[in-house]
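Here's what a typical entry looks like (YjbR protein):
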Amino acid sequence: MPDEYLARLRPLLAFPECAEESAWTGVRWRVRHATVAHVFGGEDQRFRIMFRAEPQEVAAFEHLGAPYFKASWGEDVVGLLLDDGTDWDELAELLTDSYCVQAPQQLAARIDRPA
């Protein structure tokens, strides 16, 4: 993973009890045992971040197309290709939502969630 991506992601994922750790490939952030986000590179030398979304939002992301995509696993998993055009403010909102989907209610309640 490019250090520049990790440096930009770390403050976006600084949620209560959300810990960064090495994953089977790339880096992931988890709250307790639930993955909030997972960033990794592919064989095509492109970098992706996977996160959770509310069920009704998954279909919307899928229909938006690039840079978003639906994961081939998990009903609520969405991916985003990271590149020079990434909207980091939008990604911050998506990661906040992902945290709130995955975190226990008492932790999620402590987060200011985007409208």
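Strands lie at 18-22, 27-31, 34-41, 47-52, 68-70, 77-82.

More examples are in the samples folder.
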